[in-house]
Structures are given as structure tokens and as C-alpha cells.
Design a protein that fits this description.
single chain; 392 residues; alpha/beta; four-stranded mixed sheet
Length: 392
């Protein structure tokens, strides 16, 4: 305990205070578990905020990284590197789109998309986003956010961005028109509390896109790369976006993001319009290629769908058992939210004391993002602990 207190004090002394640190010193990871320095194992149902889709210590990712490091660690984007091309082919295959631009993160991919939209449509047309949306923390991506708490100290932000109510079909029908350049949407809001877009809303949005010709941008940073049991969350809604933003899981834990465009918008950027020193790093792309190959095996994807149905059904049974404590259970695949009737910080702490790591978002939503390799036994461990905590 003394050592972790020393580390926390040292962190306060030498780092900017932008995180509420969890009082754990992690030694290493093993599969779906994180191991603290004192040897205690924690079931990680947060998976590095949806980054560690294949858990910890995956041999295929490690081997891919080691092999690429021996060849070259960094290569300027003035040269072509093979891992970039191979990973791009996979992203195009599973997204159904046309071309890829690599970044180091999701927020950088959002910034890239904003530049593309502005070049294609000019500065005066409006961009539509939605309540509770989260698209990143840089100035452009922050301008798209639907959460005022992240924006309040950093105005003025980008102009001509209109925030509408998520899933309100009347509002989009009233506000989307010939002066709309783009609509940014998370088909499943992550930071916003695991809120799922409605079928009616998507149908109206698609109708308006056909009428007005705006760009539909899918933010799949958290929900993409198999997390919902399909390649991307939009695959559940019979729609194909114009642009797809992805990151987190695609780098296998290394910094990597991407903007994927359809054919229509694949020629908007010309040489010199945009760039990145580290985007598409060969080591990160080699790791990403290993991730993509492993995740999109049929048996793994089917397992995520099967186990998530079991997990969500059991959580809904708990909501019936504890109606005064659980307001709603929401989710698709291994992207699940439990909305409580009270703030969830304490129960997240209690989970940790019981050897399970989860996250609290939107004040009262327990966010569960298990590694895609999680088993029924792992899920049952969580369910037993949750039942006991709710009894208390």
C-alpha cells in the first residue's frame, strides 16, 4: 500500500492532472486478466477502453510486432510499407468502402474527416452531431461533442456545427437540408452511456441523405472491429456510411487510427492536403493486421454474438430482480451499459475490490467492454459479483 501511495503522489507531482487514477499498480496482463504488482488478478471487463480486444499477451500480436521491429520500426510516409497496404486491404474488405488514411488515434481520424468534409463542401455548410456524442478531445473533434462538460472551458470552438437530440426523428427532418455538409453519428454511443440508435431514426437519416446528398460519417472508434459481433456497428442497421472512423482495437494496443472513405469521397484529398509523421507506423500496422486476422475468424465473431446474448439476458434478469437499483440494460455484442438509479462510482470501486474492472460513464452507467476472447465463465464471475453487490 505504501508503494502505490508513493506512486500516486509522484504522479501528482510530475504529470498534468487530467486523469482520475485508479489506485492499482499493474504488473502485467494475462488473457482477460490484469495482474497487480502484489500478484492479485483482476478480470478486465474494460479492456483498455475497448483497445485490448484480444486481451493481454496474445502471441500472434507479439510475434507480428517482433518480426516487424527487426525489419524497420519507423518509415516516412514518403515510402510505402507493406503492413500498411495489407491492413488497408482488410479494412476495405470488412467496411465495404474504398480507401484508407492512417492516423495515430481516433481523434486524429475525426480531424482528418473534418478537413475532408470542409474541402468537399466549403466552410459555410453546417455539420450535424448529436446529444451525448463523443468524438475526441482535440479542437475539431471536441467541437462535434454533445457533452457540454468537455467543451465548457474551451470555447470558441468550430463554427457551423449543430447539435441535435439523439434519436429524435422530428429534429433531423426539420434541420437537415441542402445546407448540410455532413452528419456525424455513433451507431452505439460509448461515452454517452451505451445508447443505441433506433431503426426509425436511421431510416429517416438515410431518406434525408438520399434527398440532400450530405456525408454520413460513422464514428466506430469504440464500436468497430468486431466489438458488436459484426465488423462495425453500422452493419446491424442495413446502411453504408460515406466515411468510417476507426481506432482503438485496430492497433492491438499500439497507437493507430484510420479514416476509411467510400469511392465517392476517395479523391477529395490530393498530395499535400493532409499528412501524418507517425500515422500508419509499420509496427502498429503489423500488429493491426494480426488483430484483424484473428478477430474476423468466424468462430470468434459468432462467439461474441452468442455470449453477449447470454450476458445481456442475465443482466436483464438482474434488472427485474433489483428494479429499484437497475434502470435499464442496453447493448449489442460486447458493448454493454447498465444504467443505475444512482451514481455508479462507488459500485465500480466495489467491483475492483472484488477483482473486477469496469468503468462508470455518464454519471450512472456501468460500461462493460470485455475482451472479445472472454468466456462464459468470465461472464458468470461478473454476474455473481454484481448480484452480490446489488444485495449489499
Amino acid at each position: 500500500m505504501k508503494e502505490i501511495n508513493y506512486i500516486l503522489e509522484k504522479e501528482k507531482e510530475i504529470l498534468l492532472h487530467t486523469y482520475n487514477r485508479i489506485p492499482l499498480e499493474i504488473s502485467h496482463g494475462e488473457g482477460v486478466y490484469l495482474v497487480s504488482k502484489d500478484g492479485r488478478k483482476y478480470l478486465d471487463f474494460f479492456s483498455g477502453l475497448a483497445v485490448n480486444a484480444l486481451g493481454y499477451g496474445n502471441e500472434k500480436i507479439i510475434n507480428a510486432i517482433e518480426e516487424q521491429i527487426k525489419k524497420i520500426i519507423h518509415l516516412s510516409n514518403y515510402y510505402i510499407n507493406q503492413p500498411q497496404l495489407e491492413l488497408a486491404e482488410r479494412l476495405i474488405k470488412y467496411s465495404g468502402l474504398s480507401r484508407v488514411f492512417y492516423t495515430n488515434s481516433g481523434t486524429e481520424a475525426v480531424e482528418t474527416s473534418l478537413k475532408l468534409v470542409r474541402k468537399a463542401f466549403g466552410p459555410d455548410k453546417k455539420i450535424i452531431t448529436f446529444s451525448n456524442a463523443f468524438h475526441g478531445r482535440t479542437y475539431g473533434s471536441l467541437s462535434l461533442s454533445g457533452k457540454e462538460k468537455y467543451k465548457k472551458h474551451f470555447t470558441p470552438l468550430l463554427a457551423n456545427i449543430l447539435n441535435l437530440e439523439f434519436n429524435n426523428t422530428e429534429q433531423i427532418e426539420k434541420n437537415l437540408d441542402d445546407n448540410t455538409a455532413a452528419v456525424y453519428i455513433e451507431f452505439i454511443q460509448g461515452e454517452g452511456g451505451i445508447r443505441i440508435v433506433s431503426k426509425q431514426f436511421i431510416e429517416k437519416l438515410e431518406e434525408l441523405r438520399k434527398k440532400y446528398g450530405f456525408v454520413l460519417v460513422a464514428d466506430e472508434v469504440q464500436s468497430g472491429i468486431g466489438r458488436t459481433g459484426k465488423p462495425f456497428a453500422y452493419n446491424h442497421f442495413n446502411i453504408e456510411p460515406d466515411l468510417v472512423i476507426t481506432a482503438k482495437a485496430i492497433g492491438g494496443g499500439l497507437p493507430l487510427g484510420a479514416l476509411i472513405t467510400n469511392k465517392k469521397y476517395s479523391e477529395v484529398f490530393q498530395a499535400g492536403d493532409h499528412g501524418s509523421t507517425f500515422g500508419g507506423n509499420p509496427v502498429a500496422c503489423a500488429a493491426g493486421l494480426a488483430v484483424i486476422k484473428e478477430i474476423f475468424r468466424t468462430d470468434l465473431m459468432n462467439n461474441v454474438e452468442k455470449l453477449s446474448n447470454y450476458f445481456i439476458s442475465k443482466l436483464k434478469q438482474l434488472s427485474v430482480k433489483f428494479p429499484d437499483k437497475i434502470k435499464e440494460v442496453r447493448g449489442i455484442g460486447f458493448m454493454i451499459g447498465i444504467e443505475l438509479n444512482f451514481p455508479c462510482n462507488k459500485i465500480v470501486d466495489d467491483f475492483r475490490k472484488n477483482g473486477i474492472l469496469v468503468n462508470c460513464t455518464s454519471e450512472n452507467v456501468v460500461r462493460i467492454l470485455p475482451p472479445l476472447i472472454s468466456t462464459k465463465e468470465n461472464i458468470d464471475q461478473f454476474l455473481t459479483a454484481f448480484d452480490n453487490l446489488l444485495k449489499q
